[in-house]
Amino acid sequence: PEPVMVPCHVDDVVQRVAELLDPDLEDSKISVKKVGQGVPKVMADPTLLKQAIMNLFLNAIQAMEQGGTITVIYRVVGDFVETVIQDNGPGIPEEINYKVFQPFFSTKIYGTGLGLPTVYKLIVAQKGEVDLEDAEIGARFMIKLPIVKSRGA
Fold first, then answer.
1. Could you tell me whether strands 42-44 and 6-8 are parallel, antiparallel, or unpaired per DSSP bridges?
2. For 86-95, how does the pLDDT look when each residue is reduced to its tens digit (9 = 90+)?
3. Among 3, 13, 54, 151, which has the minimal tally of Cβ within 10 Å of its Cβ?
4. Helices (H), 10-146
């Protein structure tokens, strides 16, 4: 679907995803920690953004079989809000980093390989960027979306 871009707070979308996945998070003994709330609104489609963030959360839940923490970090970089979603699971082996956004690539036995390519498509459709960042522990994905421009600018 064509994105319907509106001003929204990424944290509101993350909060909604955390609420929807609360039973899964609780069953998996996974907590959600947020750092740097209070960043400006971004131009995004909240429904598509929710779907992208949900995919990242579900991947994190599946990766952390022994429980853990999903950390969401918000930061302003230039005209963008960067939202980092990091888990403390086993991470993604360096030799396959470049493949994670390719359709049908999966390391899971029953994985379709469509989760991360879908995240990529959803974010790019909203004039944003998504990237797998280097992390000492776990997997770390960064979503970058444009800050709402004030009318006076």
1. antiparallel
2. 999 888 777 7
3. 151
4. 10-20, 22-27, 46-63, 115-125
